Each structure stands twice: as C-alpha cells, then as structure tokens.
C-alpha cells in the first residue's frame, strides 16, 4: 500500500472513530439532553453517511481497475474476433484444438 494513501486512510479512520465514539456517548450511553430524540435527528444519518464514505475510502486503489474488471474488458475486446477466427481457421483444426482443450 502506498504510504500517502495509507496516511489518508489512517486520518479518515481516526475521524470516523472519533465520530463513532461521540455518537455512542450521546445515544448509547445517554449523554444527551432529555429533549433529544433519535427519530428525525441528523446524528444517525451522519453516522451512516460517514460509514459509507469510509467504506469507499478503504476500497480505493492506486490503479482503479481490479482483476475481474480487467478480465471482463479483455473478453469484451476479444469477443468480436471470434467470428474472424472461426472464418479463417479450418474446421478440422478448430475441432482438434477444442478436443485438446477438453482433454
């Protein structure tokens, strides 16, 4: 992992941790005013939004493509060549190659 992105993840993780602790203190441990109700309160929404944002940050990569996406791209690029290969390859060679792959 690149040290700059690791630093960003650590900073963002510290922010999320602090937010989670403040939320827990207020809503789980009862450190809130008696007039506060969680229904309609923006605290729960901010907790969900921050958690979703942190998940996105954790999944960020230096190169924005992963193996399944690369395979999909390669298949999509190669698929139009299949009819051309079928057209220029003699049938007996094609059947022989398929049988070799299945064996």
Report on the structure:
The chain is rod-shaped. It folds into two domains: 1-64; 67-103, no CATH class. With 103 residues, the protein is an all-alpha fold. Helix 1 (3-28) packs antiparallel against helix 2 (42-59). It has helices spanning 3-28, 42-59, 67-78, 82-88, 91-102.
Structural category: mainly alpha
What is the mean predicted local confidence, pLDDT? 82
Provide the gyration radius in Å.
Answer: 27 Å
Strand content: under 5%
Residue stretches low in confidence (pLDDT < 50, at least 5 long) are none
Secondary structure: number of strands:
0
The largest pleated sheet is described as: none
Order of helices and strands: HHHHH
Helix content: over 70%
* Backbone shape: rod-shaped
Give the helix tally. 5
Count of the domains? 2
Gap between N and C termini: 41 Å
List the helices and strands and how they pair.
Layout: H1 3-28, H2 42-59, H3 67-78, H4 82-88, H5 91-102
Describe the structure concisely.
The protein has 103 residues and is mostly helical. It is built from 5 helices and no strands.
Key words describing this protein structure:
103 residues; 5 helices; 2 domains; mainly alpha
């Amino acid at each position: 992992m690149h040290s700059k992105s690791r630093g960003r993840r650590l900073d963002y993780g510290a922010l999320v941790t602090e937010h989670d602790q403040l939320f827990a203190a207020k809503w789980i441990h009862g450190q809130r005013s008696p007039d506060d109700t969680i229904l309609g309160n923006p605290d729960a929404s901010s907790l969900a939004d921050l958690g979703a944002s942190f998940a996105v940050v954790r999944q960020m990569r230096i190169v924005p493509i992963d193996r399944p996406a690369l395979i999909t791209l390669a298949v999509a690029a190669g698929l139009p060549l299949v009819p051309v290969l079928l057209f220029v390859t003699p049938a007996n060679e094609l059947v022989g190659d398929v049988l070799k792959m299945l064996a």
